[in-house]
Amino acid sequence: xxxxxxxxxxxxxRALRAAASPDAPPGPNPxxxxxxxxxxxxxxxxxxxxxxxSAHAEVDALANLxxxxxxxxxxxxxxxxxxxNHQGRTGPCVQALLDAGVAEVIYAxxxxxxxxxxxxAALEAAGVRVRRGLCAQEAARLNRPWLLAVTRGRPMVTxxxxxxxxxxxxxADGTSQWITPVAxxxxxxxxxxxxxxxxxxxxxxxxxxxxxxxxxxxGQPAPAHLQxxxxxxxxxxxxxxxxxLADDHYLLLPDHDPRAVLAVLAEREIRHVLLEGGPxxxxxxxxxxxxxxxxxxxxxxxxxxxxxxxxxxxxATITDALRLSHPRVEVLGAGDExxxxxxxxx
Length: 346
Known about the structure:
The chain is α/β, with parallel strands linked by helices. It has helices spanning 6-19, 57-66, 93-100, 119-125, 136-142, 144-152, 182-193, 202-208, 258-267, 279-287, and strands at residues 33-37, 43-48, 76-81, 104-109, 129-132, 156-163, 197-201, 229-233, 250-253, 272-275, 293-298, 325-332, 339-345.
């Protein structure tokens, strides 16, 4: 097993934090951070990728180092994803590292794409020492939506729901604002911020007139380039005054099967879809086996009537139940403003 020093581990963790920087919008590219270490283990520079078309993390770090007047010759580069070896919107990172004269590259995770992969082999062929696997699990968690999308050919789907203790998403008269307290709603906006698209059905769009935008805790919308694509699925027409139609960053899809919907989104390089629709849309995706993660906000409220969060998806007996793996629970808020966030994978 490859052995890494404490300094190298700390540097990779710093690279992961840089990769998760909030100024990098969700999009077709993975989140990548890079740290450059001197031969003595001192941090020389760091950088991160800020979205499609911008400099890759390694190039950003090298540019930041060059701005100080220092050189990367003989340095170690730590990056959470294998350096790319292809010409896309930007040049290959492998060539930039070779031109800089680095002695070693340590990365967390292989690039599984045929287009960008192969960087490690190219570096090794040029005489650069390459080691892999440092903080691999953390790197995989960070880029899970991207990894799932590029390996399965469809976006990752997270189903988000907010319900009462008895599983109701609205009262019998249709009112639903607000089942969960403000702490849960703020957390849901942080979840939206991690996604490329938010999807609802026409039933939800007509009943609730949602804006489907990312907003901060003061209710102010995030910048336009950080807003996810708004997707409405269904054959019913929406009024021109619908908030989902407020600008041109939306997509209306007729009644498709879930796989066809995701195929359309994949063509647009959408990597992570947040499914916020009602029970009809959620049930269709669950029946198709196309929900990858569930995030459920539960409030200490009982209604006894009203629409349920989910319809019949084919579980005829308890052994047919879908059970979340790796469930995580978090308490949000306190007192009368308390809610529970349960997250797990399917």
